[in-house]
Amino acid sequence: MQRREFLVTAGTVAAAYPMRNAEFGMRNRGSTVSGAQQPSLSPEVFARRLDRARGELKARGLDLLIATPSTNYEYLTGYNPGRSERLIALLLPVVGAPAIVCPSFEVERIKRHSIVTELHGWEEQEDPHALVRETVRPLTPGSRGGTIALESSTTYQTFLRLGRALPGWKFVDAGPVTDRLRVIKSPEEVALLRRAIAITLDAMAATFAQLAVGTTEVQVAQALSREMEQRGAPGGGLVQFGPSSALPHGGPAGPKLERETVVLIDCGCRVGGYTSDITRTIWFGDRPSEEFRKVFNVVHDAQTAAMELGRPGTPCEEMDRAARKVITAAGYGPFFTHRLGHGLGMDGHEPEYLVEGNKTRLEPGMVFTIEPGIYQLGRFGVRIEDDCVMTATGVEVLSQRAAKL
Hints:
elongated, 11 helices, 4-stranded antiparallel sheet, 20% strand, alpha+beta, 17 strands, disordered N terminus, 35% helix
């Protein structure tokens, strides 16, 4: 491949290309990253989180939060030991110190990695749910019952067994508690996201530079993952050529790469438990078609419209409407088939969602994607996705935007 083949539309890319991390295996992955990719979060950060969680519980009239291993468990304790058939559970009372119930052979491992120091081990022949009951009693002295906020992703079987072990207690979804805790990112969290974004941009630029006629989507995706790993962060994403790019989340591997075609890469990597999520679409060849150029610029204008609208207090649905209005006015309304964006943090997709019907107002510290797209089946698709944070004055784009064509 001649260098100019890549550079025609990669002028929008070459400075530092981002990628996205949709549902490409990035959720709930371990947060281990090479030492060079830290700063990691300090114990003081997790102590503040536990205090804030108690405040949320109290404000909502809840007595106790129970979380099994998950992103929310990791958010509160600093470590995700993984979920299996053996019960591990964080018990956080509205007043007092938290405790963890876990298999006895796991006590030392969890103690070494978690901010929580009170651990209660159960032996293999014992009922761990009975140990939860015995642990709850001193955490909520004088109480014969109350309301427990149960972490949303806890298995139904665990919920049933906890219910039998804790008669007289009412269980409610902890989602409103944990979502509120996580939706506003601290400066420490934003710093980790910035690092993940920088690695993603750098890895994407290196990957685009390797595009060559005859390569497959799988081969390019593998190269992308290698570039991220070499920079100290696990990651990967979707790679789509030509008509495959018209499928927002891809599909079976498409044909080998040819000249004068569209290449879409949507990817991200993880640093210190926080993940980036960026998409770029380029033309691989000498000269982009007029239709590609037109669609690309409409998508770019739609993204700009949302970014310029965003202020503290802007309803999430208004962000979606602003971008959709531009695309509809250009005649491509039916081809914008998904929401404008989603929250970003420890999970690739998390609240708040920039979608019609979500009247939640944006607040400083919220991190989210803005990713309009136009998808014409059988032809090609264009998506441009950047990671943003809401500041006191408006949207700050954390990733370097692509240029218009």
